[in-house]
Amino acid sequence: MTLVERPALRRLGFLLVRRRKLVLSLALALLVVAGVLAAGTVSGLSLSRFEAPGSESDRAQAELAERFGTGSPDMIFLVTARTGTVDDPAIEAAGRELTARIGRAEGVAEADSYWTRGRPATLRSEDGRRALVVVRIPGDAGHVRSQVLPRLVPEITKGTALLDVRAGGGEEVFRETVPLARQDFVRAELIIFPLAFVLLWLYQRRAMAALVPILAGVYAMVLGLALLAGVLPFADISTFALNLTLAMGLGLGIDYCLFVVQRFREETRRGADRAAAVAGAVEHAGRTVLFSGLTVASSLAVLFALPFDFLRSFAYAGIAVVAGGLVAAVIVLPAVLATIGGTLLPKSDRPERSEGFWHALALGVMRRPVLSGGLATVLLLVLAAPFLGLRFGVADDRILPPEASSRQTQEIIRQTFPAEETDAIQLVSKTTGDVAGYATALSRLPGVAQVDSPAGSYAAGARVADGDPARFEGEGTWLSVVPSAAALADDPVRLVEAVRSVEPPFEVLVGGYPAELADYRASVVDRLPLVLALMLGVTFVILFLMTRSVIIPIKATLLNVLSLAVMFGALVWIFQDGNLSGVLGFTATGTLDPSIPILMLCVAYGLSMDYEVFLLSRIKEEYDRTGDTEQAVAAGLQRGAPLITAAGGILALTFAAYATARVSFVQMLGVGMAVAVLVDATVIRAVLVPSLMRLAGPLNWWPRKRRTTTRDLVTTSAR
C-alpha cells in the first residue's frame, strides 16, 4: 500500500474529465479571487530584521528600553556643512535645530548628534566637514520602514541653507532594498516569459503546448501568493519571499505541467481515447507530481525549525507555491486536457522510440560504471572545491548597488569617520561597580575607538572626556563600546567576541547591532545540523514510501549533497571571492551571510529531489514491468531524461534571470539555484544515477524481493 493509491488517482482523472466544465469554471473563479488576494500580499511584504529572539543581544535591547529608555540607533543622518566646518557657530546652531526637529518628528523616540552629545570625535568626520545625527525609532520593522521613515526621510533630507543631509543606517538600507527587489522581479519576469515560451515551443513543437505550461506556472504563482495572504496577519513575510514564490511558482508549474502533458501524449500514442489518456496521466504522472511536491514542500518546511522570521517566510512561500503548482497540475490541467487536449498533441504521429540517445548513453555508462561515475564525480568535486574556503559574515549596505542613496551614505561614513558610533556595542547591567576600570579595559581592545560610560569616555586605556550622567541614568548602568570603522568592515563578530571575553566587574548583557548580528549568525549556524537532519530524514521517508527501497533514498541523498556542494562552490567562488563581480555588478565582501546559503540549501535540495522523483518514477515503473534493473534504468532515462533536461533548463533559466537583479541577495539566489538545477538535471541524472544503480544491482530495491526477469527464464530454460 502506497501513500497515494493509484486507482484513486485514476478515478479522479475520469471525474475531472466528466466534470471538466465545472472544474474549469471553479478554477477561473478561484484565479480571480486569488488575484485579488495576491495583490494584497505583495503590498504586505516587508523585510524582517536579522535578530535572534531570546539571545543575549535581544535581552540587552529589552533591558536598555525598559530601564534606560534608550537603545541602538535605527538610522542616521549624515550632515555636511555647505561651507566651513561642523564646529563653526552658525553650523552648530543649525545642527542643533536640525537635531531637535528630528527628535520632535512623529515616531522618533530619541535623536542625538555631534552638537548635542558634547562633540565626540566618533560623530565627526576626520576632515571636520561632516557630522552625524543618530536616531532611535521604536517599533517593529514594518512600522519603522513603512510608517515612520517614508515621512521622516524626505522631510529631513531636504536639508537647509547651511546643511546638506543624507539618510543612512540599517533601517534605511533595508527600506531601500524593498522597491529594488520588486523591480528586480519585474525585470526578471520580462526576460523569463518570452524565453520560456521559446524553449517550450522548441521542445513541444506546438504553440498551445508551449502556452499551457506557462499558464499553469502563472496559476501556481498567483495561487501561492493568495495563500500567503492568509499567513500575513500572523507572520512577517520577507519581500525576498516574493522572488522565491514567483521563480519557483513558474518553474514548478511548468515542470509539473510538462510531466502530466508528456504522460497524456504517451497514453494517447498507445491508443487510449482522450478520457482514458487523461486518467492515465493523472494516475501515473499525477502520483509522481504529488510525491515531488511533497518532497519540495518538506525540504522547505524544515526552515520552521529556525526561530527567524526572515527564513521562516521562505518556508511559508515555498509551501504555498508548491500547493498552487499541485492544484494547477493535478486538478486544473486534466480538465484542460479533456477540453483542448488535441491541440497539445504533436503534429506528426511518430511512434514512441524505445531506444535513442538517452538509452544508448545509459547503457554506455552502465557498461563502465566505475569509470563513468568516477570521472563525473571528480568533475563535480573540482567545481565544489571553492566551498572549502567558505567564510560566514554579516550583510551590510553593500547588498545594494553603488548608486543606492543609503549605500552612498554608508560609504562616506566608512571612508571619512574614524568610528561607527551608530553601530556601538552596548553593555547593560542591573547593578553598578568599577565602571571606570571596566571601560578602561574595554578601550584597550583592538578595534575599539572609544568607550562611553557614566565615569567618562575612554580611548586606548586613557580617559579622554568627562562622562554624561544624564545619558546613562536609569536602574543600574550601561556602557557604549564604539568600534572603529576598520573593525566593523573587517569582522564585527570577532570584535563582539573580544568584548565578551573581557571579565566584567558586574553581570552584563552585551547588545547592539554587532552583537545582534553575532548572535543571529551563531543561532543560524548552531541550528544547521538540526535543519540537515530534518531535511534528510523527511525526504528519506518520502522516497522510501515511493520506491519501497532503502538503498535508493540513500543514493539520492548522496547525489543531492554532491549537487549542493557544487552550488556552494559557485557561491563562494562568485559572491564571496568576487569572481564575475564586474559582470554581475555586485560588491564582494569576502564573506557570505549564512541566511541565504541555508535558504538555498533547502530550496536546492527540494528541487534536486524533484528531478530524482521524476526519474525514479519512470525507472521504477519499468522495473515493476520487467524486473530488469539495467533495462529499467535505460528505458527510464530514455523516457524521462528529455523531459527532465527540458524542465531543468527552463527552471534554471527562471532562476538565472535573477542574475540581472541589483540586490546581491537576489542575484545569489538566482545564480546559485541555476547552477544547482543544471548540474542536477544533466551530470547527476544522466551519468551518476545510471552508474550507481548499475553498481548496486539487485540491492537497489532492497528490502523488496528480487523479481524474476525474462533474462532469468531464458537462462533457466537453456540449462
Automatic annotation (TrEMBL):
GO CC terms of this entry: plasma membrane
Top-rank lineage group of the source organism: Bacteria
Transmembrane segments: 185-203, 210-234, 240-261, 289-308, 314-345, 370-390, 528-546, 558-576, 596-619, 640-659, 665-688
Classification via Pfam families: MMPL
Residue stretches making up the SSD domain: 226-339, 526-694
Subcellular location field: Cell membrane
Main subcellular location: membrane
Family: Belongs to the resistance-nodulation-cell division (RND) (TC 2.A.6) family. MmpL subfamily.
Protein name, UniProt field: Putative drug exporter of the RND superfamily
Provenance organism: Nonomuraea solani
